[in-house]
Every structure is written in structure tokens, then in C-alpha cells.
Amino acid sequence: MKTFTKKEEQVLLAIYHLKDEAYLIPIREMIKKFTGKYYSVGTIYAPLNRLHSYGYLKTCVEKPDSSSGGKPIKYYRLTRDGLAALKALKRQNELMWKDFKVPAFSDKNSS
Amino acid sequence: MKKEKPRIPGLAVGFLKRILPKEDSVYLSQNFKELYEYRVKTGGRFKAGIWIWGEILKSLPGFLYSALYWRFMMFKNYFVISIRNIRKHTLHSIINIAGMSMGLFVCLLIFLWVQNEFGFDRFHAKRDDIAQVYSEILYSNGSTQVFMGSYYPLAKILKQECPEVREAVRYETANGISLRYKEKQFTNDTVGLADPAFFNIFSFSFIKGDPEMVLQNNYSVVLTEKMARKYFGNDEPMGKTLTLNNTMGIQVTGVIEDVPSQSSLQFDCVAPYVLKYAPDFKEPEHWGGNPLATYILLQKNSDSSQLEQKITSIVDKHAQWETAEVSFHLHPLKKIHLYSPQGGGLIQSLLIFSAIALFVLFIAIINFVNLSTAKAATRAKEVGVRKVVGARRTELIRQFMGESLMISLITLIIAVLLMAVFLPAFNQFVGKQFSLYLLFKPEVALGFLGIALITGFLAGVYPALYLSNIQPRSIMKGFAGVRTKGSLRKILVVAQFSLSVIMIISTVVVFKQLNYMMSTDLGFDRENLIVLPMSQSIQDGFEPLRNELLSDPQIESVTKSLQGPWHIGSTVSAVDWDGKPADETVHMHWDYVGYDYFSTFKMDIIEGRAFSREYPTDLKEAYIVNEEAVKLMGMESPVGKRLSVFQNQGQIIGVVRNFHFQPLYHEIKPFVFMLRPDSSSLAFIRIRPGNISVTLGNIRTILAKYNPGSKGDLLFFNDILSRYIYTSEEQTGKIAGYFTLLAVFISCIGLFGLAAFMAEQRTKEIGIRKIVGASMKNVVFMLTRDFTKWILLSNIIAWPVAYLIMKNILEKYTYRTHIGAELFVLSGLAAFVVALLTVSFLAFKAARANPADSLKYE
After folding, report:
1. Fold of the domain built from segment(s) A6-96
2. Smallest CA–CA separation between A54 and chain B, in Å?
3. Model pTM?
């Protein structure tokens, strides 16, 4: 499995949560929900593009309707590989965070 | 009022379209629009406008990254595919790479040379305002002659009377002058003589001394670093005194860096011009033709044609020309090295060689184009698949262009390696010291890269357009559509061979002319004749030296003269004889010679006698003229007639058969000899054939006695002709010869590749033909027929062009070799035979193949 950057991880998870509604703007909103920060369009587009080239995402273009102002929208979905990668990522993260507790220490002792 | 739908500002839309990755730009701009509309609703139009620009700026790195990312992925793929193709089609690749490397190699060599020659005299800070003044003399018979040499008073008068002239200096170089410091004495330094303002005009970098002051003292000298080290070692040279010709001392007042090799003024030291007239410093004031050059520094932006007229009229006032009209012209420093005012000059050689180099490269490029398009079938499937999965034509073009650029970079590396091997030989041809270190100079490195890339572009552009145009549909039908008639290919092969034949013919013409000039009868015997430039010490001890030389039985005779009969340009118009028309100005070439001149040169005295020691009057009042001069003077029996030359009365004592005293460009003109053994600068030694190296050794030992410090530079007369007079012919012949061989070779390997491809394509056809009864002869004939036609056609095209070029080459020679039709036929035949051999080798191979093998895969 490829290792993911933080942004790639966030984008993958956002798409996972958004299910059928994942295109660039909701993804951006979703990441804002995770991190409290808006990423610029380009900042999200780059990892999206890259993940697509790895084969973790597939795209489908929706017919234009009135809500999008008469223009097509490109939706992203996870592929089977993408889901597997997320699963592996989760396991990895759990391993890394296993038994994590904020140790009770005071600043005075540590020095 | 109805509320309008908010829209993204137009400028932002345009900008977005430009930067967004192409495949997603519609969707992305849609996204931007949505965000913008939302912003407009919440924060108003103005805020949204600012926001959208901020957002675009912040997005730039991401977009850029994505674009490069895909480029890189595709590039990796293209790269892998190209390498695979190069390795898969070995013959094709070897031919392409070998041909292009050679073509590029030739071009790079010539580029190196051209850029070196164009870099001459660039180091002078005031280079744009420096010019040499030269004169053009219009004779009464309408002919003109250009003299680069100028007149003693010219510089002074220009400086005084011409406000446009900021500085003017006289300059000339002297050789064979002996200089001594303590026991170190040398005679091989080139001494420049120049007026004090010399270093104000020319920017030679000073290490020691003040450029304004160094030549102010009449007995001063400025040395180059090299010369200072030669005489003074590591001692301080400033203020030391050198002894000149054992008579006077000159003081070192400055040291400059060595003269750059790219300088048209070359010297080892510079002394004041007036030193020539030491010790009384009486400078000549007359307006006779002189061996010096006059350089001037102009005011900025002065109009040179106006100034030329002004100089002409100023000089006219002072000189009062009697016989001819003299006009003055300026030759800018920038042009001095490359152009000669008489027309021609080095630039001509450069142009010829550049053209030849480009021809060779062009032939190599044709190979690339031909083989790439011929082999299109092998790439057709790839193109089809790429197109089906969505490659656009521009992407395919980019891919194939990239491939040819890659090959051109590979060939660049090979070409540079070839240069590393052949540079010393090339240096010898052009008389330069190029080294591969030049590659570190940015202009050279960029030039090389540029030439390689342009080559790659030219070679790749047609194949790229051709290959990218293949329709997937036709490939699915089984290549039927890919086969073309290949008419362009035929045209290109014909062009290639026409060029080769033209080059062969032109080279042979140059060689034949050179051979003619080196072997034709000049009117004297030029074999076994040694020329020795005399230094002052040899001149002083000439008589004992001569006697000692003559004691060697291998030495036939010794003589001397002022000028060498390879190029005597000086003329005298002060000639008079009984019956000369009063209004006519005539010119005779002349020379001062010593005793035994005519017997040493083996010139024929057809009437009268040669100069002789038995007639003391010969020294003052005897003239020997050539047949042309007799014709000019219209004398029946010239011997004994009165003749005055340089206002010196005398009589003609002999007539010499016409001989060539100038290169064969010029016709033989009237000539007069005077006996002045004391005014000579060259000695001539006639040796007997056989054991030449021993004789030369003896001469050197004898010379060393009379001329300590000199290396004894002995030159054969023929060496002088080939080294100094017919240099450009020698150079052109040799370089053009090698380049022509390369061109023919490259054309032939191209033809070989093409023939191999065609034979391969027709394997099955040949198999079937053989089965139904074709003999080997039939098959070979069938395969070579097309090529034969092409080569014959190229000959027919090449001949008229070569004829014109030949006429052009030979035009400047008054005496030229005979070129008949047989040269054309033979050159054409040579190209034809070589090409036929190349093709028939493959044809035989194909014809010998067992049809069972070629047909069993059906």
C-alpha cells in the first residue's frame, strides 16, 4: 500500500463520508468540518488527481441540472482499491495510536 | 428590477481557463463559480471578487503540481517507449545516430571555428569607433587598386585637421630585429611600432605602466608578459634597458598582458614609431606608398562616408597627386579580421565551410526523416492504441518530437566525443588551438545545445506530423492504409545524392586547381629552392655566409632579394623611356635583387644578359624587364634602350621570360628588376636534389654561426606557396575533402537502411517470385532498379549546379586548370557505384534467401 499524505487521507475520508455526493465543494466543506480550515480549490484538486491516478478513486460526470447552473459536475467515488486502502490506513492508524493516553506529568518534573 | 444572476468576473474566468488542467477545466471552473455565487450571496459582490482572486492564487501550487504530475507520468512512458524502440530496431537506430552524430560533429566543429573568428577584436573597449584608413587608387586607364598600407604623414594630418578623428596612429610590425639584455639575445620577436596614442585606441590590459605615458619617450618599449619573462625571468622588467640591433638602448616603460589570440594585431612588444628613424628622428614627409597601417579613433556617431570624403579632400590638398586619383576609405575594426576591402576575405571561407557543414547535417537529417517515415508501420499500432485511449494529435506530435530531440541529445554526446578525438587534426587544418575546455564557455555550450536541438526539431517535425496523422481505423484494417507511395522519400534521397555529387565535384575542382597551381610552370624552377628571411645579423654577414654555403657541393647557388616572387604587389609609376606617351600613367611591378638572382631561380633571360659582378655599373643603372614590360613599352629590341625608374636613369640590359610573381589569380604584368644587393630581406638557396635532410642540416649549422638566437626557419618555396599564398585553397580542399567523404558515407548508410527496409517489406514477394521461377539475377535487378533510377536522376540534377559552382570557384583564377565533362561523369559514376554496391549487397542477401523460410509463417 502506498503511504498517504495527510491531505490525501483527509480527502479519501471526506469522499467516504459523502458517499454519492462527493465533488470538490462538499469535499472541501467536509474537510473544514474535520479540521476547521478551508483548503483552497487547488489544494484539494492535487491530491484528488493523484489518488485518481493511483486507482483509488473513480469519477463520474453527472448530467447538468438546474442546481449546478446548467453545467456538469464531476463526482468522485471510492473504488474497491480505495476502500481497501482506507481499511489498511485505519488499521495502521489504530496501531500507531494504540494505548495512547495523555501521560500525567508536570512540567517541573520533566526538566 | 429583476436581480441578475451573479457571475464570476470575466478576467478571472479567462485566467482560470489558462491555468486549469485541461481535462478538468470545465468541472473546476464550475466549482469556482458555485463557490463564488455562494460568496456573493453571503458577503456581496465586491468581497466575493476579492475572495475569488485570493482563492485562485492559493490554488496555483496545487494546479501546477497536478499538471506537472501528469506530464511527468507521460514523459516516463514516452521515454521508456523511445528506449525500447531504439533497442528494438538496431540497424535503424545505428544509422540514424551514426549519421546524425557525424553531421552534428561537422557542424559543431565549424561552429567552433566561426564563433572564434567572429570573436576577433571584441576585447577593445572602443571597438565600434576604431577604423583603419586605406586608400583606393584610380588609374588613368580606369583600373583601381586598393592599398591597405597608408602614408607617413596621414595620421598626423588627420589628427590635426579632422575634428571627427579623436586619435590617429601609425602602426607596423617588424621581424628579425635583434634585442639583447645582458647575454640573452633573440631575433624572433615581433616588434610593433606605433605612435604614442596606440594604447589610447586599443585596449590591451596593462599590468605595469601608464597607458597614456608609456610610449612618450622615443627610446621606450612596452613588453608583453611572455616577452618580459623571456628576457628578465622573474626580475622586475620596468626600467630595464634592452639593446636594439646592438646599437641603441630602449627602456621598458610598461608591461601588458599577452596579446589575446583573438586579436588581429599580434606583437611581442611595442616601441614608438619614430624609433624607426633614430637617432636623428627625421621622419619622412613624402606621400609615397608605405608599409604602415593608419588606425583612427572616431568621435561617437560620426558618419563614416562623409568622413571618407573629408579625408580624401584633406589629403588631396597636401599630397598633390600627379598621376592618379586617390580616395580614402575606412575599414571598421569589427570587419578587419573577416572582410577584406578588396572583397572576399576570411568570411568567404567561413561561409563555404558553414554551407558544407549544413549540407552534411542536412543529409543526416534526411536519413532520419526517410527511415522514420519508412518505418511508420512499426509504430502504427502504438499510435492507434494511444489514439483509441484518448491521446490527442498534439500529444502524439509532442511524443515523437520528444523522441527525436532525445536522439539529437544522444548524438550531441557522441559528436562531442568525436570532437575530443579529431580536434587536434582540425586545429592543424585551420591553424587554431581549440580545446574541449571551450565547452565551459556559455556561448559555446549554448550554441552546441542549440544546434543539437534545432537538428532534433528539423529531423523530427515531419515524422511526427506523419506518424501522428495515422488513423486508428486504417490500422485496424491491417496496415493497408499506412503504406504510402513514399514519393517524398524518393525526393529526399534524390536531394541527398545530388548534394553528395555536387560536393564531390566541387572538391575535386578545388583539388585540381590547387594541384595545377602547385605544379604549373611559373617561369622559374620552384623545386629545391629554400627561402630564408634574413635578420639584421645575417644581412651584415651575407658575403662570408654565402661563400661558406657555396662550399657545400650540394648547394648550387645563393642569392637575395627584397621581395619574394610569390606575391609582389608594389608598383612604381615613376617610369620613363624614350617615346613614352606624355599623358599616360603606367605601372610596373619591381624588385631589388642581388647577384645570381636569375641563375638561382633558373629564370630564362631571353635577350641580353643577367646582372653581373663584372659590370660595376649594373649596381646603379641597369634594368632587367620582363616580356610584358617590353610589350608595354612597345620596344622592338629593348636591350640597350634608356629606361628610368624611380627617377634613376639607366638602360635595359636584359629581358626575362614572363614569370609569375603573384598568385595565379592575377595575370602577369610588366616587371622591372634592379640590382641592389644591400636592400634585401630574403635569401634564396638553390640546393641539388637528393640527401635533402643532410643539406638542410648543414645549412642550419652554418646559419647558427651567423645568426645566434634564431631557430633557423628554413622554408621551401613550395611550402610558402601552400602555407601562406594558397592557404585557403589548401584548407578548403582538405576540409571539404573530408566533409565530402562523410557526406557520401552518411548518404550511403541512409540508402542502406532504406534498402534494408524495402527488402524486408518485400520478403514474401521475393519468396513467391523465386518459387514461380525468378532467377537471382531477376530479383537483384528488381530490387536495385528503383535506386538506380534515383541516383541517375540525382546526377542529372547535380551536374548543372556543380557546373555553376565550379565556374564560381575558378572565376578568381586567371590561370586555371582545365575541367572537362569527364570529371562530372566520373564523380557521378563514383557516387553511383558506391550507392549500387550498398544496395546490391542487400539485394543479393534477399535474393539468396530460401523462399521456404520467408513463406512458412503464412
Report:
1. Arc Repressor Mutant, subunit A (1.10.10)
2. 12
3. 0.77
